[in-house]
């Protein structure tokens, strides 16, 4: 059974965030109002320092302990339209402290001003610059950022770059075509999102681009050569089958997969470590997954896994 804070959060999300808005301009205005507002406290853990900076020309927040030995690239959610970096300070700060890692949260470009592939370009370019550092690196992200996590891995593989140690995708959106069953089936049970919201936001993001493009819908691509993946998802959310499909793609390609699913949870619940007991309970699972593959990476000669050389032709993107 979900905790009282989880039920309360779901009620607040249903009342304040969830809307069936079909007008794109109105949806953009609504999502930016609610997602860019300080909806909940997210304080930095003790011992973690916040600095603003740029990587590959993209501004963002660095969260760092005193002597970081690892790098984490964290890609925020927000339907490719909004999102507030401060929302992730507590969750990413805990990752920074427990893994002795520096975390970079890029403020990547957003639609409709900067539609696809702007966000994917920013995420990929940030990763390409970060991976030049000798420290091992991992990628993580939630919702739209979960999409960007998988897309960044595919782009790195397709451009024959070295892979990170592993990656985490929290309730990722993986199919811009909108064909997966849970989009409709869970539209009522999802406390934050609806099928309509996702459909309109996707149209705003793509701005006419092909929804089947592998860098928009990563599950249309072969996952061969990707690093170990951890997926988390709520069984009652619209993006449930997006996570299922991505995990299936990974397993079919021989990629190690760990899957964390909970009932009766809001979308991207693991990031709310300051508020939800379930997020606090599941944080060690995420940390253990990251530690396992970071340790495996450090045991090898180089700091990174090398991508499989097959399927390395990078698809073209039309702006």
Any overview of this molecule?
Helices cover 36% and strands 15% of the residues. The protein is of the alpha/beta class and 319 residues long. An 8-stranded mixed β-sheet has the order 1-2-4-3-5-6-7-8, with helices on both faces. Helix 4 crosses helix 5 (144-158). The longest helix is centred in the last third of the chain and has 22 residues, at 277-298. The protein is globular, with a radius of gyration of 18 Å. The N and C termini lie far apart (46 Å).
Features:
disordered C terminus, 36% helix, alpha/beta, 9 helices, single chain, 319 residues, 8-stranded mixed β-sheet
- Determine the structural class based on helices, strands and strand pairing: alpha/beta
Are there runs of 5+ residues with pLDDT below 50, and where?
Answer: 301-319
Distance between the termini: 46 Å
- Rg over CA atoms, rounded to whole Å, is 18 Å
Largest sheet report: 8 strands, mixed
What pattern of helices and strands is seen along the backbone?
HHEEEHEHEHEHHEHEH
| Count of DSSP strands | 8
Percent helix, as a range, is: 25-40%
Shape: globular
Number of helices: 9
Tell me, rounded to a whole number, the average pLDDT. 92
What is the spatial order of strands in the main beta sheet?
1-2-4-3-5-6-7-8
- Share of β-strand residues: 15-25%
